[in-house]
DNA sequence: GCTACGATAGAACAACGTTCGATGCTGTGC
DNA sequence: GCACAGCATCGAACGTTGTTCTATCGTAGC
């Protein structure tokens, strides 16, 4: 697909890319500075080329994001395919979901684009297949299997969206870090009237200094417990 | 907060708005044509005023979206507060989650901005409180309560994100409707090798012509079943 | 009537995605 | 060796967006 082999040296004027390098630099840009930093001009500068050149590889920005997303999902998929099957398909589902979540923690921008377009994202489909295959080992109807995988993906996406929120400017500036920011929100909650907000006060200490991973694991555990019940399995 | 009472008549040149009218028209614009249609120029035209005037009411577009989101969540909250408490807190949680989901089906753009910023979105916090209050009726630790509400909100958001995806251009044009579009994707899946994609083939008929509401209800049911188990309740 | 200020608006700015047209590079047929 | 074709590149320009600047209008209080 991409003919021009990279010959970097010799102080050339014209840059020569490849689909691979475009996607690699796109992901690097997203990793380093988040989604708003991904502009065609910034990407072109990184690639040492012109803006319009990128359009030779992708039709538009949506496609660029789809391909970049699929690119990293490819490596996540490789990790997941490396996981060995255990006796318990639900344990395997948990392990896969956790691997997925960990990858999104490393790349918060993924949350927004994850599983957006299964046409351009063939690795997403492979991942979906891989998750679903575990449900084939459970005693369920096809419809239940379909819904089970949707539910698990939904839990991951639901948590990922939380993580993917662009933090306010003051956090990006480094003036305050994420914990301080959340702590400040917690403080505002504490000042609410306990009569009007009994639940908020009940959980305020849990919210303050909470761990996103714990939160995700708990949500996942509820879904998996429900699934285990549905499959008529007694317990682990 | 907003002094100028609307006196619409008399062929005036200068428009006079109010926070209320700005948010109402913002929501109307979002409802009619989705998030990409919301521009300051389009909004100003609807309001019969100038672009810069909007900046007297909101600091920037993010705040406009936060306030508009909170505005509609206010009416959702009113619906939810109207729901009577039953014997079973989990039944009540289900009813509230379903009401929430229905509202997002009507306004797919909500999914993207839902519960983004609890500072500017005071109704979101009230909604969160309302959900959590049901968990106070269950035998759980504060941490479990916190995670339970997060999980339920996560399921809603996870499903909402699916719904909130801007459909491809051909669907917006009306050339093909959403069912046809999904049916075409299903057809592509059918052509995959069943050896490589056993799960996809297992559930392809379920996917084709599936109902989003069913999908959401199933995911919610798994979480609620897990929660019931955790609370040590025998069953409904 | 004058003034202070709440509220409005047009014009301009910078940044973005995208398109256009021209230009360079490289392998192929003679 | 040379022209040609087409792949790949790039600078400049276009239209649209969020946002800011500055000037202006209208009304409440002296």
Q: What does this protein structure show overall?
A:
- Two copies of one chain form a homodimer.
- The first copy, chain A, is an all-alpha fold and 236 residues long.
- In chain A, 65% of the residues lie in helices and 0% in strands.
- The first copy, chain A, contains twelve helices and no strands.
- Chain A has helices at 19-33, 40-47, 54-57, 61-82, 89-106, 110-113, 122-135, 142-164, 169-172, 178-190, 198-207, 212-230.
- In chain A, helix 1 packs across helix 4 (61-82) and helix 5 runs antiparallel to helix 12.
- The longest helix of chain A is centred in the middle third of the chain and has 23 residues, at 142-164.
- Chain A is flat.
- Chain A starts with 18 loop residues before the first helix and ends in a 6-residue tail after the last helix.
- Mean pLDDT of chain A is 90; it is low at 1-12.
